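Hi there, hope your week has been kind to you so far. Thanks so much in advance, here it is.
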Amino acid sequence: MPRKRRLFSFLVGVMAATAFLGLAAIFVGYLGPSEKANSLRPYSEYDLRLIQEMAPGEVIEDLGVDGFVVVFKPTADQWDELELLSTAVFDPSMTTYHEDLGVFAVWRIGTAAAGPCVLQHAPKGRFSHQPMWPGGFFDPCFDVSYDYAGRTIRDREYTAVNWGPEAQNLRGPDLSIYRGNTLRVRGRWWLPYDAGE
C-alpha cells in the first residue's frame, strides 16, 4: 500500500510540475514583445552578407524600418567622380559613408524646403538631355538632384534637370554590425537618429 501511495504521489507531482511549466511558458510568452511592438522597433535586421556580397557599383533600395533606405557600394571610378563632384555640391561632406561596411546609406526621402518626396534612383546616363549627370537620386516633386553620397548638387550641368533649388544633403540611418553576422539599420527618415532609441 505505501508503494502505491508513493507512486500516486509521484505521478501527481509530475502532473502538477507539468501544469506549472505550461502556465509559466504561457506567461513568459505574454512578456515578450507583441507582433505590433516588433513592427514598431526603431531598427530592422538583415543578414550581413547582403552588404558583404554587394558588387561595386551596386545599389540596394528599400531597406530599413520604413523601407526608405538606399545602400550604394561605389566602384573606384565612382569614388573618383564623387571626389571631383565635391566642387559642384552645396555641402561637400560625405556623412552617409560607412567605412566599416564600405557603403553609403541614405534615406530615400528628399530634403527640399517645400516638403518631403520619395526620391528616384537615377544611374549615370539616365538623362540623355544631361550628359554630365553623375548618377544618384532625383526628387521628382521639387527637382532637387543628389549624388550617390547624398549631397545636393549645385552646378546645373551636373543636375538631373539642368537646375535645382538648394536643399540640405540627404541624411542616412545608422548602420551597425550586430552579433557579428547581422546588419542592423536604425532610425526613422523623419527623425534624426537618436542613439538612445
